[in-house]
Structure formats: C-alpha cells, structure tokens
Design goal:
six-stranded mixed β-sheet; alpha/beta; 13% helix
C-alpha cells in the first residue's frame, strides 16, 4: 500500500510540474509554443525544455532549425533533452528530414550533413518518419561511419520509421539508442541498423 501511494504521489508531482508545448512546421513564423500559436521548428520547440515536458508535433515535414548537439561537429535537426517526450501525429504524416550533403554525393557525409534526431538519456521520440539523415564528425572517417544518420544519443524511438539514413561505408540508421515497434526501410545498402549499444525491440 505504501509503495502504491508513493507511485501515485510521484505521478501527481510529474503531472503538476510537466509542461506541454506544440510545434507545427506549417506555421509562417515561430509562435510561443501554445496550442493556438505553436512553434514552427523542432529546434525552437526544444529550447529550454526540461525533464517531464511533452512536445506535440503536428503533421508535416520538419526540415528547418538544425541544432548542434552530440559530439564533435555533428549537427542534428532536433536535440531532445533527457526526460523530454517529442510526439508526432504518426509516422505516415509527420517527417523529420535530415540533410544529404551536396559536398559528397556518394556517402552524404560532407560538412553540411545533418542527422535527424539526437535523443538524450530517458528522452523519447514517437510517431515520426526520420529520413535522409547523415552525419559528419570532424577528424576521422570512422566517426562519420558509425554515428547514426537517423538517431543517436542513447534515447528511445517508438513507432517510428527510419528511411534513407546512413553515412559512410557502414551507414548506421541508429547509434547507441533504442527502437521499439519501429520500421527500417531503404537505409544505406550494406548498413547496420544499430551499432554500439543500439537496440531494436
């Protein structure tokens, strides 16, 4: 009974302190994150988010607002902090578009390559198609091969689709992250789906 009361208390506290925000790529300008005036970009939507916050993304394509995160020079379309949830309307209608570098058309690993998402710790992303993400980390070919064009950071993807992601000879779709009820299609030929702690469930 005491354990049950503790769980209820924690749940209530989480609900009290958690904030909810909205983002819609179809907006003409950045809003304040409210339901009536949502943010336009995922990068803006993640600014200042803390554990327990939830961000709902409207159907659309998110291909603006690249944000730095991860290690070295890797750039990410969105960086989700630990404990934060980013929830799309569904993978069939909500897309995070990475960036295929035009500097290197063979592997897409030029310096302007962008990964789709970096999700930290206990953060998670749900209901998106993450497509055409590439990575570039300064200094080593190895790093650019193994860094997850679709997802990295140790977080979790739920009910997502990974399409056309990769980089280098290995073309990793996710790196050091977990994927539950996700689908992988048309990622780099010969690629690993997950690497270095990545896990498909």
């Amino acid at each position: 009974m005491k354990k049950l009361l503790m769980v209820v208390a924690v749940s209530v506290a989480f609900g009290v302190f958690a904030d909810t925000y909205y983002v819609d790529s179809n907006q003409e300008t950045e809003g304040d994150g409210s339901k009536l005036n949502p943010f336009k970009t995922l990068a803006k939507a993640m600014e200042g988010r803390v554990s327990g916050d939830i961000v709902y993304a409207a159907a659309g394509t998110y291909a603006e607002g690249a944000a730095l995160g991860g290690s070295n020079t890797t750039s990410n379309r969105v960086v989700v902090p630990t404990g934060v949830a980013l929830i799309g309307e569904g993978a069939d209608v909500t897309f995070i578009e990475g960036h295929l570098s035009d500097q290197d058309t063979t592997t897409g690993c030029g310096t302007d390559a962008i990964r789709c998402a970096y999700v930290s710790g206990t953060g998670y992303i749900k209901g998106f198609t993450l497509r055409n993400g590439r990575t570039q980390k300064a200094g080593t070919t190895y790093a650019s091969q193994y860094c997850g064009g679709g997802l990295a950071g140790g977080g979790l993807a739920v009910e997502c689709v990974f399409s056309g992601n990769g980089c280098g000879a290995r073309g990793i779709a996710i790196y050091d992250s977990k994927a539950i009820r996700c689908r992988f299609e048309a990622n780099t030929v010969g690629s690993y789906l997950a690497y270095a702690g990545g896990r498909l469930v």
